[in-house]
Amino acid sequence: MPNEEPLNPETIKQEEEYLRKVHPTAEDIPGCMKLFDDFLLCNVISSQARSLYRYGEMATCTPKLEEFKFCMSLKGMHPEEKRDVWIRRRAEWWAHRRAGKSSEDVWDVRTEPLENFPPRRLDPNVQAPRTIE
């Protein structure tokens, strides 16, 4: 996450506290096989098509590969130490995500309703003029 302003340590601490509650033991963090599966699933045609439809571009699977490689780098650690390092990394990721832009930033809150919305319902008893003869 280069060229980004530094995160508030309090934000990271909040994320760490939450993740420690959600993942109370070392067995609760995802294993390397799960992360590798996530990486492979990112590359399948259905995921790529969904990304193309939703965002107009192919999915970038590099972050999932980086998560897998990070997990592999923790293989020699004690399970509790591995959990602490993983929680710290995820907390930083969530803090960056919270500090960054979201899809909610795109929309402006409306202060008054749209005109003529919802559209008036046509009276089924009134015969509409035919346009094609």
Describe the overall structure.
It is a single chain. The protein has five helices and no strands. With 133 residues, it is mainly alpha-helical. The chain is elongated and about 80 Å long. The protein starts with 8 loop residues before the first helix and ends in a 34-residue tail after the last helix.
Topology (SSEs and partners):
Elements: H1 9-22, H2 32-42, H3 45-55, H4 62-73, H5 79-99
Helix pairs in contact: 1-5, 2-4
Summarize the structure in short.
It is built from 5 helices and no strands. With 133 residues, the chain is an all-alpha fold.
- Tally the helices: what do you get? 5
Helix content: 40-55%
Q: Give the distance, in angstroms, between the N- and C-terminal Cα atoms.
A: 64 Å
How would you classify the helix and strand content by structural class?
mainly alpha
* Strand residue content: under 5%
Shape: elongated
* Assembly classification: single chain
Which consecutive residue ranges, at least 5 long each, have pLDDT under 50?
A: none
**Major sheet details:** none
Number of strands: 0
Give the mean pLDDT. Answer: 86
Query: What string, H for helix and E for strand, traces the elements in order?
Result: HHHHH
Rounded to an integer in angstroms, the radius of gyration calculated over CA atoms is 24 Å
